Structures are given as C-alpha cells and as structure tokens.
Amino acid sequence: MEIQRFACKVPGCNKDYCNQFNLKRHYEGQHMGVKRFRCKICKKYLSSKQNLKEHRFMHTGIKPYACPYEGCAESFRQGSQLSLHKKIHQEVIRRFRGIPQVETSLSLLTSALIKTEKEEFEENNIKLLSQEIVLPSITSPQIGITLPSCEKQLTIMS
C-alpha cells in the first residue's frame, strides 16, 4: 500500500508531507512568512511551536539536546544542531570501523575532530577581525547618514 504524499508546488521547493495540514503549515511558514507564535520574553514572532520552544532556550541558556556518544559532552539548543553534530561521530565511525587499535578510541577521535573544527572556526574569525579595512575617502560632505545604533543624523566631512 502506497502512502499519499502532499508536495509543495512552489518552484524550487522539493518538500513533501504525509498530510495536507503539514503542507499548509510549511507553505505559510516558509513561503508566506506567517509567524503565529510569540516569545513572551522578547516579543519575537516565530513560525512554529518547535521554533518557539527552541528559541526560549536562548533566553534560559538551557541546552537540552545532549550528544549521546560516549566521551562527548557537547549539547545544543536545537535538535537540528545535534543532528548535524552526530554526523561527525558517524563519519568517524564509518571511516575507522574495524580497525582494532582505533575501535576503542572512537570517542577520542570524534572529540579531537570537533575540537579541531572549533579551533579552525575561531582562527578564521580572528583573521577576519584582524584584517585592515580601507574605506574610500569622502570628497564632499555627506548629509543624512543614519547610523544603525544612533537615532541622530551625522554630517561627515573629509
């Protein structure tokens, strides 16, 4: 018996769902920008109950999605982040499964891989922050520039 699927008809969107309700919710949230769920703390609107639930963890600092792999202490605010993280472990296991001297230390390998990724991310951020940014000189007075963090308008003269 084949289960009927309900496909999104928006060009370029390949999502499909097992019922029309889920398809409608997808269409409203992803393609129409409908956001029905509001955070009581910061008043931000979100498109789904799950997004609101995970958004609240940002305010509380709770990271309820813990990595189940032995020796790994990572935890996340979003289930999707945990899923991506677990792929690192799965890839290490796939590559090294069956090698006796490695089999016992798979958790150590995944921890090292995660640490390396974090270090590379931090290194790249430091490089970006330390780059010297040269702005073109302003040849005439610029009137009406509003800075994002300031309500006042500034006149900049070269």
Automatic annotation (TrEMBL):
Keywords: Metal-binding, Repeat, Zinc, Zinc-finger
Any one GO molecular function term: DNA-binding transcription factor activity, RNA polymerase II-specific
UniProt GO cellular component terms: nucleus
SMART domains in UniProt: ZnF_C2H2 (SM00355)
Superkingdom in the source lineage: Eukaryota
Pfam families: zf-C2H2
InterPro entries hit by this protein: GLI_C2H2-zinc-finger, Znf_C2H2_sf, Znf_C2H2_type
C2H2-type domain location: 6-36, 37-64, 65-89
Protein's UniProt keywords contain Metal-binding: yes
Keyword Zinc-finger among record annotations: yes
GO biological process, one term: positive regulation of transcription by RNA polymerase II
Protein name: C2H2-type domain-containing protein
